[in-house]
Amino acid sequence: MSQMISSGKKSAGLLSNENRRKITWVLFLLPALAIYLTFMAGPLFDSLRLSLYTGEGYNPTKFVGFQNYINLFTNPLWREKFLGAVRHTFIFFGIHMLVQNSLGLLFANLLSSDFKGRNFFRTLIFTPATLSVLVVGFLWTLILNPNWGAVNKLLIAAGLRQWALPWLGRENLALPVISLTSVWQWVGMPTVMFLAGMTGISDELLEAARIDGATEWNIFWKIKLPLLKPIIGIVAILTFVDNFNAFDVIYAMAGARGEPSYSTDLLATLFYRTGIAGEHPVGIPNMGMGASIATVTFLILMSGVLLWLYLSRRQSTEA
Amino acid sequence: MKNKLFVMLSVLILASLVLSACGTPAPTQAPATEAPAATEVPAATEAPAAEEITLTLGSWRVDDVAAWEAINAAFHEAHPNITVKFDPTNPPDYNATLRTQLETGTGPDLFFVRSFATGRELFDAGYIASLKDLPGINDNFTEASRSPWATDEGEPYAVPIIAVSHGIYYNKDIFAANGIEVPTTWEELMAASQTLLDAGVIPFANGTKDAWDINEVVMMQLIPSNIGGYEGRMAYLNGERCFNSEEMVASFQQIADMKPFLPAGFEATSYYDAEQLFAQGQAAMMMDGSWSIGAFEKDATDFEWGVFYPPALEGKDTYVTFHIDAAIGANAASPNLEAAMLFLEFLESPEFAELLGNNLPGFFPLTKEVPTLSDPIAADFMAFNNAAAGVDIRFVWEKLLAAPSGSVDAYTSLNNNVIAVLKGEKTPQEAADAFNADLAAWYEPAAACK
Amino acid sequence: MRGLKLNQALSYILLTIWSVIVIFPLWTLIINSFKPQKEIFKDPFGFPKNFTFDGYIEAWKTGRFDLYFTNSLIVTILSLTLILLVGSMAAYALAKWKSPAANFLYVFFIAGLMIPIRLGTIDLVRLIKALNLQDTIWSLVPVYVAMGMPIATFVLTAFIKELPGEMFDAAKVDGASEWQIYSRVVLPLMRPALATVAIFNMIKIWNDFWFPLVFIRAEEARTVALGVSLLFGQYRTDWTRALAVLSLAAVPLLILYVLLAREFIKGLTAGAVKG
What we know:
heterotrimer, B: alpha/beta, ten-stranded mixed sheet, 10 strands, globular, C: mainly alpha, 13 helices, disordered C terminus
């Protein structure tokens, strides 16, 4: 009898234990979920719905089904702008991925060993990240100015007058140049994250490799890099997501139209111009179209992230 | 371990407390300028018991804070219970911010309204109060001034306040040193530019980095003389002329003519860079708007300078671009609509015109009775109007901006094609053809021009 | 040994070159803010010959920087604290709760990173108005906390998943509750990841001017980013003042960063992920 009761109690206890754990997890998630749903996910996902509507202003009311999407891909004007923005966004992201993250890896490797002045350099590399884009944009526009900028003055002084170009005025130059400005500002981010990863690699391991006669070059490629894989993955996906929505630096240095002649127009500036500000000088926004641009951007990003999640999960089960 | 995070946080919090402690004794800056005006006028013209009302005035004119504070102080003097607070937003953000505020019911009581399609759309959406009952609006302004902010039936919804003019600012010292007189034909202007270039001076400071200025202050001040002002423009709007007519090609040709005379890196020279090139005496001329008088009076102090109107091609008459630019409307949802209407009435007064014209040289009041302008350059700009065969607004503003989604409006098309000519991608004829094709695609009267 | 020396020399050279590239623009900013307008254009990169404080005096008189800084600091610190607390709790659950619901929520949180936030502006302004928070700095906090959630849950969940499982098992054997494991085991270990999240969000929040622009009209509630963008627009043609305004915006955060940099980088690198 007592045994039965106790066993009965036990099974009930197990069930409620399960439930209790569930409740615990829900309680852990609740505050974040509540704030996120109310102040971000709700408004955002609600606004994606607008891509099915047309009309002037921010709250278009005329339902048109998928017409906005059809226009985006079939109207030659929209298609040209949109595909241009996609291409520029990939270039912008690619430059960050290659240049910013390689530089970050290089700096982290240099800074991970102990030497005099290390703290100075560590501090300095991250410094531009604390500046507002307004400051960064203004400064680099000044430095790259064709009439009185330092870059062209230096080039002319070095006898390279033919290289003193209007950097921000040429269609094939402006996007790479602005991307590099952005790299200048943000390179501290991957540096610090890689540095954190490298500090975690045990000194004995590196010492042992050095005693075995491995060069620094080999140590970097054969030991450090493989151990950094998880961090490289996180840095890569953050670079992807961050730069795919990049807006500020283009707005500050090339305006909402992505001057010159839309050559620096990114998905985010196209969205802003279409859905929020409207084309100069009319300034009447087309939020339905804007929302459909945002939705397509979202789908591109989401597939990238899901691919990343899938790959990283497969890797962790393999390992 | 955790302590350091706390140390970091507490340092930050401490810093913020110290700052706020420093901050609190400092009184508000903005009202300080208005307060004396309030106390100096002891006897109110209104009933002293009147309720204190503060109106906000939204605007894109961030540069003009001081002038508008003076204007608002004058209004406050006449209506001591009403204070108007000038609250500008940077021009690139103005449209989006205003719309957000209007759509969510957080808009300013009064705000600057852009002309034609932009303002009209806000009125149709119900955000701007109708002014059909505002006393004096029909008497104090010409129909031409009112129409950019009125329905087709003539119902007004904003009080026109500002027109701007255009011209060529020139460095008198450089002109004199090179023996150049103010040119009277386009051909003379180009010859003078060649002389300057040969002498190692940049003839024109203008660039294309910001794109809008080459379109609005260069191309659109050249067009009127080529097409014959208002009547000429109407011929395009009615479909009597196609947008690639020889007059339009001639305008694009003038842009091509100017190319060798622009700064070496003109593609990356912004509007503000161009102004500095002129103000620092590095460029002999700049095509710019009257709104820049103030900036040049402050910066261009090392030499004598003046302004002339771009001369027409040999044998053509000169028409001036005098653009009706801004009006002020009242927020239909404002709880203080009555007070807002009082302010709009004040905008019709000679007192306001006087204050505007002389506090903001280069911004011309639109009241029928024009005050004497004390600024000599502003007076010169006004003199262009009188000397010209005619005066008109910028070419594309009326009707040609309202392109349906998925087609190119005239502003954007003109802008793209002007830049294409400067880059050498299109000949003037090709540019005019492309401009015509863009408009024929959607603008009914031009449909036959395909 | 010789190889090491060569490596070190190369390190110094590379780092010095980069330092020059970093310092030069900042030098340009600060040095020119002390020059009269004309000198900026005649000699944009030299030391000021006619030293002037006019830009700063004028900017300080027109803008209320003390107030702007206080507002920005309060908003940033409050938002960051909430992001770290709420985000780390959620991340712990997302990493350790093995269920489809958790997987779904993880992706749902990350999805927020992928839609331009301005899209939701109208709904947000309505919400802030309904809560009667407009024209106050408090309107910004919930929006920034929500904006911080995707990055916080993403980085922190990834981090917790990397932590060795034995640690949790050991704590569980000792009879610790989830809450105790979170606060005593996970939180202290998470410091480097928390620092990453904090710095990511701090920069975004400090420099954001869109939400202050649409939520706030009262001067009393302006943040540095908003105040600076307005003053900067006003001084576009007056470079001495424009540069002074930008310096006023940049320098305090720079000083704060330099003062705390050692702590920050130490916190970030100490006890990092063991690869």
